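Example 9 (inverse folding). The structure is encoded as follows.
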């Protein structure tokens, strides 16, 4: 049976990236049945919302989605489609690997980190209001249930993927109740994995410093929502930026895989954008559905093209377009021996 996947092209450069990722994933030999659904700025006039209900229903039905970048207005306009997707579909775990790639210029080498971010509460729940005319208040919600759930996801991921350590990141020295509860929950879950996975914890500001100074000491990081958003971008910076950083949002009933960078509308339609992040998000999707061999071949082919540097986009130092970059990956995939899944 083919894997039925909701494909959301997104805004700006999204449709070009989605087309490239789709072609590469189809070339992997895995049988996909793509259900294309539009969301974002382009559907506001028709539906009055950037995320129509039929798009959510498509994801619920298929249980898988691959999503291009969608514009989020700053300070006004509609609410983030990404946040709405996570809350509406119960996508409680945000997975953001950060792994060095030969051919991508960066100050760091041999980075191999995995960020596991709680996706449903904390300040990102968006519970805020004005206090009079000149002040605003946001409410931070941390629950034992969500904290233990994300900690268990991080430890299960570590066990399944042969990772050595999980580090809980918090600010419990100041927010003793909310972050204190998160840390307490992580410690309780860690006790269940004693002897299999090492555990430690770090205060978030110190964690940021240590990631820049000695990232090799860390492996899987588990964080509340807001810290996870910030630290995952920091880790992406260690490996070359958001253009090479994949992402996944995973729940019990559905999973959405996405590039985490913006929609870059000024580059839309120019065939210049780098599809690496969305292709690597497709690799995460392949792993999620059990197509491990195909995932390995796609990632190896992409890394080979980037390392060679001949058919890469301008941001990677080349002059290839989005489509030509995808063509080069597909050519490498065709040259590689097929492996039965």
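The amino acid assigned to each position is listed next.
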């Amino acid at each position: 049976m083919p894997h039925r996947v909701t494909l959301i092209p997104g805004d700006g450069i999204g449709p070009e990236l989605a087309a490239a990722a789709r072609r590469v994933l189809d070339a992997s030999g895995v049988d996909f049945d793509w259900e294309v659904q539009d969301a974002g700025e382009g559907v506001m006039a028709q539906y009055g919302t950037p995320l129509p209900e039929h798009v959510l229903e498509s994801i619920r039905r298929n249980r898988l989605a691959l999503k291009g970048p969608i514009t989020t207005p700053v300070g006004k306009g509609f609410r983030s489609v990404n946040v709405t997707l996570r809350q509406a579909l119960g996508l409680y775990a945000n997975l953001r690997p950060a792994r060095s790639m030969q051919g991508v210029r960066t100050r760091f080498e041999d980075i191999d980190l995995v960020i596991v971010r709680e996706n449903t509460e904390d300040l990102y729940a968006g519970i805020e209001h004005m206090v009079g005319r000149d002040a605003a208040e946001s409410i931070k919600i941390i629950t034992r249930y969500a904290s233990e759930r994300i900690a268990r996801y991080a430890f299960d991921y570590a066990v399944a993927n042969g990772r050595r350590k999980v580090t809980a990141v918090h600010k419990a020295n100041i927010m003793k109740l909310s972050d204190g509860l998160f840390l307490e929950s992580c410690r309780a879950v860690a006790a269940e994995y004693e002897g299999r996975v090492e555990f430690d914890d770090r205060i978030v500001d110190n964690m940021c410093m240590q990631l820049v100074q000695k990232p090799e000491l860390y492996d899987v990081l588990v964080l509340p929502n807001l810290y996870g958003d910030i630290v995952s971008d920091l880790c992406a910076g260690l490996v070359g930026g958001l253009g090479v950083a994949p992402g996944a949002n995973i729940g019990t009933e559905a999973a959405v895989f996405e590039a985490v960078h913006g929609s870059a509308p000024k580059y839309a339609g120019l065939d210049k954008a780098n599809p690496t992040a969305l292709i690597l998000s497709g690799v995460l999707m392949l792993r999620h559905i059990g197509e491990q061999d195909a995932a390995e071949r796609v990632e190896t082919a992409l890394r080979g093209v980037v390392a060679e540097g001949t058919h890469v986009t301008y941001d990677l130092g080349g002059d290839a377009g989005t489509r030509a970059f995808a063509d080069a990956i597909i050519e490498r995939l065709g040259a590689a021996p097929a492996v039965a899944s």
